Amino acid sequence: MKLIYRVHAIERMFDRDISEDDVQSVLLDGEEIAAYRHTTPYPGRLVLGWCGTRAIHVVVDENRADDQLIVNTAYEPQPDLWEFGFKRRKN
Asked: Using one digit for the tens of pLDDT, what is the confidence trace for 43-91?
């Protein structure tokens, strides 16, 4: 699949010191922790991956018709918002 970055994703990645290599590593080796099947125009998902000891979440949409994976944003999950392991949000 071709990887496409939204402008928002590029801006946030720059602000958060997350590289394209980091995002690609998360998408290749990470774990889907949430599926957004009913988002439009494409279904999306939240993927958790690790770059060394740094947890990174990447939100992507999948445009299967055009064989594209669209990166919406990437961020380092905050421990005060996520349970240990960063797979589930705290209530």
From this structure: 999 999 999 999 999 999 999 999 999 999 999 999 999 999 999 999 8
Residue carrying the six token digits 């797979």:
87
Could you tell me the domains of the chain?
2-75 (3.30.2310)
Residue-wise pLDDT tens digits, 10-30: 999 999 999 999 999 999 999
Instruction: Mark residue 83 as left, alpha or beta (left: phi above 0; alpha: psi -120 to 50; beta: remaining).
Output: beta
